[in-house]
Amino acid sequence: EAIEKFKPDVVVAAWVTELWDNEKMSGNYWGVDEIKFKGKLKKYILVGSEKVHGDKNILQAFPVKKYKFDRLVTRSLDKDKNVIYVFDCQ
Which pLDDT value is given to residue 20? Predict the structure, then answer.
């Protein structure tokens, strides 16, 4: 709703759960359907973990770059899996 209302070029988010996917049996009923970002954003930047977010549908839907930094600190137990994904949603 915020994307529709404010029409940003870039959205930065952290630890976003994707919408429930019956085929993968993962996600959440209240999750975000990130595939709908197509054409509505230039970039979508997601801070998360490869362990938690590494099989998101958006990873196959858009061109993506992954960045890892030692200084990226989260409460994750697998600190080496912390990642910043940058999606090109155009």
Answer: 95
- d(CA 77, CA 63) in angstroms, rounded, equals 28
Q: How far apart are CA 72 and CA 12, in angstroms?
A: 15
Chain mean pLDDT for the chain: 94
One DSSP character per residue, 21-46 reads: BTTTTBSBTT-B-GGGGTTT-SEEEE
DSSP 19: B
β-strand 43-49 against 82-88: which pairing, if any?
antiparallel
Three-class secondary structure of residue 60 per DSSP: helix
